[in-house]
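writing this on my phone so excuse typos. first protein, seq and then structure
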Amino acid sequence: MNYVMKIGCGVALSFMTLASAAAENFKLSNNQRIACSRGLSAGKLNTSTCKSYAYVFNTKTSEYFRCQVSLALTRDNKEVINVQADGGCAKRPRIFDTDSSYSFDATETEGPNTNSFFGPGGYAVWASDNDTLKVRGCIIISSGLGSDISKCIDMKFE
């Protein structure tokens, strides 16, 4: 038990060090979502899979990371048989070409079992310059052919 506590404290300290070093430039988006699905397998096994997405945004450069965490749980009528978890963040390109002070938010489409037309769906990101009236909206969708399609539009203020 002592060993587990030491590892847990070490991991927490590592994250706090990383967070303090990056605190002035990185911000977590305010729009996280979670989606879960259930399935029945042979032998009356139940599998539940949950995924959640979040975005970490560099407020100076407008680069961002799309992060995903997933958990799959398999059980029968009496016990949990298997639990698997995975996660990571993928770096995405800058939204604006120049450094400034930016704000950011993002949202995911619903899962493919609802109204998504292009496979697993996509996501939308919004970024704005905190110093000038500049907003850019981007939609990124899966083409179903292996690559994502991304388009960003600068907003006009009338």
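second protein below, same order as before
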Amino acid sequence: MKKIILGIAVLLIGQKGFTQRLEKMQWFNEPQKWEVKNNAFHMFVTPQSDYWRISHYGFTVDDAPFYYGTYGGEFEAKVKITGNYKARFDQMGLMLRVDQENYIKAGIEFVDGKYNLSTVVTHKTSDWSVIALDKTPDFVWIKAIRRLDAVEIFYSFDDKSYTMMRNAHLQDNVPVMVGFMAASPDGNGFDAKFEGFAVKHLPDQRRLDWLKKNNN
């Protein structure tokens, strides 16, 4: 409770819009160490934790830290991520989650000493796609846009120019948990920092189309 109060107090000073979202956010698999400091959210990622279902590896895990708020309808979410990655498969980023069988996680995953833009899409079973980076970025922005029954995932190095890295199905007309995810399935944890988190409501596309057709 003290950590939550401290976080709210810090954010009230410098980032009012983010404060209101933070007050409503909650933990799934709360890690032992986390704090809000200088308008950034920090956590030490729980060792040997992950999100994955069945495919390829043959196991299911659902035990990594996830700090989230719940949103309905269509929206755009983004966050700036910085990680002190150490071990194979150390990862962090945005997560959109309907339930334990339906979720998308996207961000950076550290594999064989290299940084990869990574997206895992899970519907009953998980799949994994990566884009290898030629250089080691200091940070990455990840953005997700939910429209109808799909989510577009983008990345950026400057929060200005975004490139799409995945388009994936996600059931529409259901609430979605949206927030920060980090995991260290093969390691002993690492420091993860999230900044600039924002979720923007988007008008429902079907309703806009109906209004346009029935404008008379």
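The longest helix spans residues 2-14. thats all i got for now
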